[in-house]
Amino acid sequence: MVAAVYAGALAAALFASGSASTPGLSVEALGQFVPPAAFASSHAYASSHAVTYNQSLVPEGAWIRVRQHTERSGATTVLMRVVGVKPGHAFGVHVHQKACGADPAAAGSHYQDKVGMDADHVNAQNEVWLDFQSDSRGSGTATAQHEWTFRKGEAASVVIHSEPGTKGSRVACFTVPFGGNSS
């Protein structure tokens, strides 16, 4: 019990930041990574929605916070912060179409503003890329900004990959209730 209270206080301190009231839509989610077996079967972790598939890169107990802010104009900013991942490692991170599951493939494909598989579509301008390199303490941050917003119900998670860009295996996933327009 004391450990859970301490972990909650630690996460709050690590993720503390000022909040400005800006018109538009804002979404924020915070999670602590658990292994697939705990993710799939334990009610104790049901509220986390964060699963690690590779504990050497994203250990059980690492934290993630994701914020989305969409202006009334549709311009969207996604911010991500992680704490407790492998120090000094370069990760790829993308918004995916589906919620996380015990199987890394459950999150589906990258969310794209304009759907396609060629170089005009698979890039940081058409997708949300949050690639980062963790510092010596295993923390990292990333921000992506776009002039478009998510289509309602079509963006549901953030997947951490073992390498930046479009390569690398899926090492962790965090379900996020991204908001979007109704079209």
Major beta sheet, specifics?
5 strands, antiparallel
Structural category is mainly beta
Q: Report the strand count.
A: 11
What fraction, in percent, of the residue positions are helical?
A: 10-25%
Classify the beta-strand content into a percent band.
25-35%
The 3D shape can be described as globular
What integer is the average pLDDT?
84
Helix-strand sequence: HEHEEEEEEEEEE
- Rounded radius of gyration (Å): 16 Å
Folded structure, characterized:
The chain has 183 residues and is mainly beta. The chain is 10% helix and 32% strand. The strands form 3 sheets. The chain has a 5-stranded antiparallel beta sheet, with no helix packed on it. Strands 1-3-4-7 form a 4-stranded antiparallel beta sheet, with no helix packed on it. It has a two-stranded parallel ribbon with strand order 8-11. The radius of gyration is 16 Å and the shape is globular. The N and C termini lie far apart (45 Å).
Keywords:
183 residues; five-stranded antiparallel β-sheet; globular; mainly beta; disordered N terminus; four-stranded antiparallel β-sheet; single chain
